[in-house]
Amino acid sequence: MPTQATAPQSDEITREVVDLMANLVALFHREYEDAAAARSLTGAQAKVLALLRRGPMPMRQIAQTLSCEPSNITGIVDRLETRGFVTRAADQHDRRVKLVAATETGAAASEELRESLNFAREPLAALGQDERAVLRDLLQRMLAGASGPGA
Known about the structure:
Mean pLDDT: 87
Strand content: 5-15%
Strand order of the largest sheet: 1-3-2
Radius of gyration: 18 Å
Oligomer: single chain
Number of strands: 3
Low-confidence stretches: none
Structural class: mainly alpha
Number of helices: 7
Shape: globular
Order of helices and strands: HHEHHEEHHH
């Protein structure tokens, strides 16, 4: 008898949910890239700024979270630093580690971008408060059960 720990069955509802989630992700990425471009940011730069809302972060952790090479993050951070969106400093506990932190300007740009994203507002407005809470709880459960970067 299958348990929750086994792989999910490939039934019609599961396939439909996966397709719907893929459509939502594609819609989000398209709007996110457009919102970033409207602020003269690349999607990757915007994602780094969004990560830094959590607080200063080692460059290696940024690379791992975004599933990219540390050298790519170096270039992204260089460009953000040139624009005054981030600062880079040695970690007090390990001087070999470089911590990246958003400046006030970078945090404001990230928040402005986040507030400009409308893709989810309209579909979510069709749901009642209780339905949105159930959806949030289900998504949190799914993410808690996931493994890998960002989970």
